[in-house]
């Protein structure tokens, strides 16, 4: 009997997700595959916890400026690194574009707000998000692409035609695929 219980325990341990989960994305300029501008690290401690993102990026446009920061839907080929090929914002529930702090039904899953670059083009990222996931399911960002844009994300509040879909963030500056590690 004990043996059977132990056997069940063993089988359960093989199929369980082993937390914490980790992922990372190496970012490259749009249409460039030569040298990375930095790496972002993603951690999810358990099935209920938010995802923590941290990392440092360099070589971005050298202005003290906010720039849109999103998970886009598709995986892209790093040898080409076409950020545009990542498609629209990751939006499995078909919501309008919003702010990272918006309620989950008023943002895309991929809406992570803005990052701040300094006058030397550095950005230090420390962000916790309760909506994106590293485990399986509708909200998983694994094998999707993180994108940094030229301009500030207006969180859907602007008067531009693309405010409600992209936050009017302008061109794709850099991007990279998020891989489980
Ligand atoms: Cu974007
Ligand atoms: Zn969005």
From TrEMBL:
One of its GO terms (molecular function) is copper ion binding. Residues 1-16 form the signal peptide. It comes from the Eukaryota. Residues 38-178 form the Superoxide dismutase copper/zinc binding domain. Keywords: Signal. GO terms for biological process: superoxide metabolic process. SUPFAM superfamilies: Cu,Zn superoxide dismutase-like (SSF49329). The keyword Signal applies. This is Superoxide dismutase copper/zinc binding domain-containing protein.
């Amino acid at each position: 009997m004990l043996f059977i219980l132990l056997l069940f325990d063993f089988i359960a341990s093989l199929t369980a997700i082993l937390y914490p989960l980790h992922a990372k994305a190496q970012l490259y300029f749009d249409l460039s595959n030569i040298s990375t501008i930095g790496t972002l690290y993603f951690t999810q401690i358990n099935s209920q916890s938010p995802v923590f993102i941290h990392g440092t990026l360099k070589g971005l446009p050298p202005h003290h400026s906010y720039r849109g920061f999103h998970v886009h839907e598709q995986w892209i080929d790093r040898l080409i690194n076409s950020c545009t090929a990542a498609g629209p914002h990751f939006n499995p529930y078909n919501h309008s574009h919003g702010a990272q702090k918006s309620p989950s039904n008023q943002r895309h899953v991929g809406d992570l707000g803005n990052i701040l670059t300094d006058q030397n083009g550095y950005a230090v990222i420390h962000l916790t998000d309760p909506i994106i996931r590293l485990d399986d399911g509708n909200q998983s960002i694994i094998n999707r692409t993180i994108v940094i844009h030229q301009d500030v994300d207006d969180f859907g509040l602007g008067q531009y035609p693309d405010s409600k879909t992209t936050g009017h963030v302008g061109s794709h500056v850099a991007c990279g695929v998020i891989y489980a590690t």
